[in-house]
Write a structure and sequence with these properties.
The protein has 162 residues and is an alpha+beta fold. The protein has 5 helices and 5 strands, in the order H-H-H-E-H-E-E-H-E-E. Helices cover 34% and strands 15% of the residues. Strands 1, 2, 3, 4 and 5 form a 5-stranded antiparallel sheet that branches. A hairpin with a 4-residue loop joins strand 2 and strand 3. Helix 2 packs across helix 5. It is globular and about 45 Å long. The termini are far apart. It comes from Hymenobacter lapidiphilus.
Length: 162
């Protein structure tokens, strides 16, 4: 049987998701916003990467209450532990504008992925865009692969994990 002659289509964000992305990006420090936009542009400009998935921001600024909800996950609520920071201790709690954002990928089938491989590829683009950006996947202990932050903005508590 012959393969379809229709070219593969990249995954797309819905109108609501696009609006939410703009809102979240508006919560980021200008240098983090610029690094994300540059990395996203390079990603979408690559004919192979854009077919794999579309990066999108899952969280940027978060309230202390939201941080405490995430802290409870894997402890007093079901799910995996996703943070070691309580409300007020995370870089996500600074601002807005905030020096931290989290990324996932919308895949062609519409699902969401936090693939370490995709995130590591995106991390290279983020770090290339601005040398002040650090990736949680590079941390020696708790690997927070969706997490990107700008150096020089210290959260309370002195630990980098968000």
């Amino acid at each position: 049987m012959a393969a379809s002659s229709r070219p593969a289509q990249p995954p797309l964000l819905s109108g609501k998701q696009t609006t939410l992305q703009a809102q979240r990006l508006g919560e980021a420090l200008p240098c983090l916003r610029a690094a994300y936009e540059q990395a996203l542009g390079r990603w979408l400009g690559d004919p192979v990467l854009r077919l794999v998935g579309v990066p999108f921001i899952t969280e940027c600024y978060r309230s202390a209450e939201r941080q405490n909800e995430l802290y409870a996950q894997g402890r007093t609520k079901p799910g995996l532990v996703v943070t070691y920071k309580r409300g007020g201790q995370s870089k996500h709690n600074l601002g807005p504008p905030t020096p931290a954002l989290d990324v996932a990928f919308r895949l062609a089938d519409g699902s969401v992925s936090w693939s370490g491989l995709l995130l590591s590829k995106f991390a290279r683009l983020m770090k290339y865009a601005d040398a002040r950006v650090v990736w949680g996947g590079d941390w020696p202990s708790f690997k927070d692969r969706p997490h990107f932050e700008v150096l020089g903005y210290e959260a309370k508590g002195g630990d980098e994990r968000g």
